[in-house]
């Protein structure tokens, strides 16, 4: 069972890039299977910080082959800039170790404009999208009118397809959203010219994955976003447009259902959310500033993709337990434990009430916005934990906090991250 799936258990930005980088040591293949450049995965190696949006975070390990699956939506322009940035940083990204599925859908500049026009039209009911065109590209996919990476290989037909798509978006933007007309011919020609440069990377990624697995290669799957942003099981409609749980791997990479060795649920030691939508354990005021940081540290809570300040709050144990169930999490990788150092008391949300009555077994994620959090208080710790490398190096209160998380989640903590650097990690044994 050489498959490990690493996924976010919250609303994204749990530290997936950082954990996937650690797990990539023991992987031959690293694959993304959902989302697009709405993701921002940070990996710090020595003096270099990589911000990956599309390419799997495993690319930094030279022994890996990296796959971008059919479940993704890919903006070729972002892809090419990422390739350039990685090459400039000395990472080898040639099409012998990085492959894009021919069945992945494409995001064009028109999708981005439409995403932004739709958000503007939603007004106060906005979702807080990243504005990257994710929703519109998945809409086209589901409507069976999308552009796919494989279309780039059809030189003769590509311009006409892109043109028809941009024309359609232009019509929507003008007539439905009363926006300015798009220069259809210009946008289409410029897009086609650049997108063609992605051609060498396009391959039958599903076949590569299936063949590699049959040969006993070790596959690490890197989820984007977090389970609570899942299109079906998250806090709809304040979600993204893809399957963000571990179950999305099979369909999103083109491999059959098969046993999985580990499903690592990456969990920040507190809760954050960057877009709109319900967040029962959200904090405001001084406490929020304390958790978010002011932006002075590179890891402070400001979006990797959009730079927006993230909303912050206490860890939500009710939601964590739900996510363990829906994503089949077998173990937790807890990140940013170091950020909690110096807080006298910590809270974890362990239950909800609705109109003063305990919610208990009637919990439904669709009613999250109506719930009030019930907290359990735990003692904090004053010590800096960023140099801890073994569980026993942690103060008793920090171990107590992790232990309580294990009890609530019902699965063990196998890894604890105490800083963004590669060596700032505790592997539980
Ligand atoms: P992702 O989207 O899940 O990959 O997470 P992001 O990269 O968007 O955000 C996580 C941020 O926290 C990045 O700046 C990481 O470098 C940083 N980070 C990850 N783990 C730790 C940790 O244990 N401690 C600290 N202080 N920062 C961390
Ligand atoms: P990573 O992989 C945090 C959020 C947006 C918005 C909602 C819909 O870095 O964890 P979209 O642009 O996808 O249509 O936006 O989803 N969102 C993320 N939040 N981390 C992400 O990715 C996100 N990707 C999307 O903020 O609330
Ligand atoms: Mg992120």
Name the features.
429 residues, alpha/beta, 20 strands, 29% helix, binds guanosine-5'-diphosphate, binds 6-O-phosphoryl inosine monophosphate, binds magnesium ion
Task: Briefly characterize the structure.
The protein is an alpha/beta fold and 429 residues long. Helices cover 29% and strands 21% of the residues.
Description:
The two termini are 20 Å apart. Strands 9-7-5-2-10-1-11-15-19-20 form a 10-stranded mixed sheet, sandwiched between helices. Strands 14, 16, 17 and 18 form a 4-stranded mixed sheet that branches. The mean pLDDT is 97. It is globular, with a radius of gyration of 21 Å. It has helices spanning 16-23, 76-88, 109-122, 134-142, 155-175, 184-195, 205-214, 248-253, 285-292, 317-327, 396-409; strands at residues 3-8, 29-32, 41-45, 48-52, 65-68, 73-74, 98-101, 105-106, 202-203, 219-226, 262-268, 271-273, 311-313, 315-316, 331-335, 345-354, 357-358, 372-379, 413-417, 425-427. It is of the alpha/beta class and 429 residues long. 29% of the residues lie in helices and 21% in strands. The structure holds guanosine-5'-diphosphate, 6-O-phosphoryl inosine monophosphate and magnesium ion. Guanosine-5'-diphosphate is lined by residues 8, 12-18, 40-42, 44, 298-299, 304, 335-336, 338-339, 417-420.
